[in-house]
Amino acid sequence: MNPLSTIVRALPITVMLLVAVGCAAPSSEEKPVPSTSEFSQLTDAGIAEIEDSRHARFDLRNHELTKAAVGLDGQDRGPIIGGADKPLITLELLGPERTETVQTSTIMFLSTSADTPYEGIVFWQSFDTPQECLAELRTDVTRWGIRVEDIDRWDRNSQGETDYQQVISMGVGRSGLVADVEARLANGHCLLKYDIYLEPRYYTPEVQDTIRRTGSSR
């Protein structure tokens, strides 16, 4: 299992507290100024703008997202935007090769240090039936480079299940971004979690070849 996925699924309490502080509403004494950048910011004003417009856009053409690029230079802040019960957000990810646009209600940014770029972006998509979930996974073969055999394995293993969870696989998407997809059934509903990896070690020719061949970075 990829170590970054493990971090996402088991965030320490201290990190969660930092996230909670980071997502707090701006003080009424200090009104946020909307961003003029063509890309979204993760300042209080930037998050408010994303939530108001239901649109977010990030430049990942160098497969990285620095704190300075989102207005948080020198800050160890990994916000969570939206939530399971919130309206959908259109998320645009400009990759090295092309832009991917997805619909999601929740976006999370992974930060472990104020001095380093974000390690990844996570978003979720929910579906009312396993069939809708499987159809979406089939599109991920092209979009995120997920292997057909790994999706078939999910289909076989989840048959007849109402509560089931499985990491599908990693892939190198048509955008040039590296992604990992995990699926979970709960009471017949399906949730897909997408990790977009931004650490340099995922962008060497050797590692990407391994991902394409095996669905894993190792």
Word description of this protein:
The chain contains six helices and nine strands; from the N terminus they run αααββββββααβββα. The protein has helices spanning 3-9, 13-22, 44-53, 130-143, 148-158, 205-214; strands at residues 55-59, 80-82, 89-94, 99-104, 106-110, 120-127, 164-172, 178-186, 189-197. The strands form two sheets. It has a six-stranded antiparallel sheet, with helices on both faces. Strands 1-3-4 form a three-stranded mixed sheet. It is globular.
How many β-strand runs?
Answer: 9
Uncertain segments are 1-36
What does the overall shape look like?
globular
Helix content: 25-40%
Order of helices and strands: HHHEEEEEEHHEEEH
Mean pLDDT reading: 86
Give me the Rg, rounded.
17 Å
Count of discrete alpha- or pi-helical segments spanning 4 or more residues = 6
Structural class: alpha+beta
Strand order of the largest sheet: 2-5-6-9-8-7
Strand content: 25-35%
- State the separation between the terminal residues, measured CA to CA: 9 Å
Largest sheet properties = 6 strands, antiparallel
Note the main attributes of this structure.
alpha+beta; globular; 28% helix
Provide a compact summary of the structure:
By secondary structure, this protein is α+β, with helices and mostly antiparallel strands.
Show the helix and strand layout.
Elements: H1 3-9, H2 13-22, H3 44-53, E1 55-59, E2 80-82, E3 89-94, E4 99-104, E5 106-110, E6 120-127, H4 130-143, H5 148-158, E7 164-172, E8 178-186, E9 189-197, H6 205-214
Parallel strand pairs: 1-3
Antiparallel strand pairs: 2-5, 3-4, 5-6, 6-9, 7-8, 8-9
